[in-house]
Amino acid sequence: MDSTAQKTDLKAIPANVNEIKLQPTSLDIWENKYCLKSKQGERIDENIDQTYQRVAKALVEVEAKDIRQDWYEKFLWALRHGVIPAGRITSNAGAQAHKPATSTINCTVSGIISDSMEDILQKNLEAGLTLKAGCGIGYEFSTLRPKGAYVSGAGAYTSGPLSFMDIYDKTCFTVSSAGGRRGAQMATFEVGHPDVMEFIRAKREDGRLRQFNLSLLITSEFMEAVKNDAEWHLSFPVTANEVEADEIDLADPNQVMWRDFPVKGKYVNDAEGRIACKITNTIKARRLWDLIMASTYDFAEPGFILIDKVNEMNNNWFCEDIRATNPCGEQPLPPYGSCLLGSVNLCRFVKQPFTSEADFDWVEFKKVVSVFTRMLDNVVEINGLPLDEQRIEIERKRRHGMGYLGLGSTITMMGMSYGDSASVAFTEEVTKILALVGWETGLELAKEKGPAPIMEEKFEVTAEMLRYRPEMAADGYKIGDKVKGKVLHAKYSRYMQQFPEGLRNKIAKQGVRFTHHSSIAPTGTISLSLANNASNGIEPSFAHHYSRNVIREGKKSKEKVDVYSFELLSYIDRINPKADINAGPDSDNQLPDYFISAEDVSPKQHVDVQSASQKWIDSSISK
């Protein structure tokens, strides 16, 4: 279908009289990605508001019949006032009659890939089904033995983790080519694995692993070794049979190091749960660090995950060992973990923009966040995930990741400059309120509908738990004690410990509806389309005026289309219709000096803004 057809009908129903008209590029993307269509390509959603109505209706179906209409009106109100569910929800919620095999979940992580041919291929099959449903997926591949290791069952030497990654790469390419939506994958790899240097260099080979983002799992020990210019051991776990056959002395620190590893039971372990790993090579930590930095500078990969910090701050620290993330990194997840996403468009809450009276509507923002929390919680019931393990995991913990978009645009509209002290303070405040309102609503939902099942489960206190949380021993807990999840979550989560004690005590007593509430995604497509090119995620605007090359359906040639940032459109609409990003200093049409874009922001300013936000985000931020 030609996307130019009947373009006059493609318009949003205004949420208020001051709404800025959506630019053609935004409507094009809505039509191609989020507008529900029949098999014949005919629009079922005639406009963006009908998309909102479809989503609201799908989410309210899980409510009790006597309150559905009331919540439908509230959900639709929120969608018209800045709530933007992630792409899988907006595209697939309420669309089962037309695409029944799709999911409303953006983020998943594979089950642990065990070091056997059978499990490697089984997880590849599961990945294919997950990608077919429209979900992105992450995996850790450093659970596989290094290249050249002997495989006793086969009587041969393994080709190593990277060769198996090639299989997953081809699966993703094939599934996405057949199914329309481009597949997305993340591969993580521990910095202490013997094949780490091959992983770092993998994408230097033309065409290799192009369906993957790559990230290293960086441990605290490695960072200390870099700081101290120390040696760094590369190692892999050993089984009892290997210890005997290779005559390995477990007490010799030159042969063996003891460290945490995600696979338990198969390998030799000590009383604290650490795994015996045979040292295969030793290099200078700084040499490896320099290789990582050079690759990141030249190829923008691999990414950098401080995995010990991730697990330290994880709300489910007591039952999860996180080793992988979703493809963009904003959701660190356990094996078979899943998370749904949604963003609040901050631009919608700016009052009197570009004036000395510019302000943020905190009252309406809190109301929107509260309603949106309920909406996202309802998505768990219509997750559409293809694997039993995925459905069990999301229903047990009910994770969701609410974030925001338009932060950069909002900062500009309020007369601040991205990265200055005022913008950093605003970023922390808006993120803190999003988090507080979310947890307060989670308590209310737990009273009404019940807490996440994990909250009432009992967990046995282990030596490993006391090693990570010594304050538990100070509180009288001993190895073998049984403690409910809601207590471990509310009282001993490093993230939750920063919240008021009253809130945490309520969670410890009654539980909360979900274990995780917040995450800031890249939001590139929904920002450009449904938010009329507000800045994406936590970023400043890329540029205020640029061109995109668009190939329209049924045509072969590219068409150049002008695109404007939301804040520039708003300034033109409200302040100066002749405003020009290229106007000189003596022109009446010059924009204020706080109209900056990404190229004007220093690395420190980027970090300052992200740091202010991350404090109150319980998952992560895609940057």
Give a brief outline of the structure.
Helix content is 38%, strand content 15%. With 623 residues, it is of the alpha/beta class.
Map the helices and strands.
Elements: H1 24-34, H2 48-60, H3 68-79, E1 83-85, H4 87-92, E2 107-109, H5 117-132, E3 136-140, E4 150-151, E5 156-157, H6 161-179, E6 185-190, H7 196-201, E7 212-218, H8 220-227, E8 231-237, H9 240-245, E9 256-259, E10 275-284, H10 285-299, E11 303-306, H11 307-313, E12 324-325, E13 332-333, E14 338-345, E15 350-351, E16 359-360, H12 362-379, H13 388-397, E17 400-405, H14 407-413, H15 421-449, E18 458-460, H16 463-468, H17 470-474, E19 482-484, H18 485-492, H19 501-510, H20 524-528, E20 545-550, E21 559-564, H21 566-574, H22 603-614
Parallel strand pairs: 2-3, 3-6, 6-7, 7-11, 14-17
Antiparallel strand pairs: 1-14, 2-14, 4-5, 8-10, 9-10, 12-13, 15-16, 18-19, 20-21
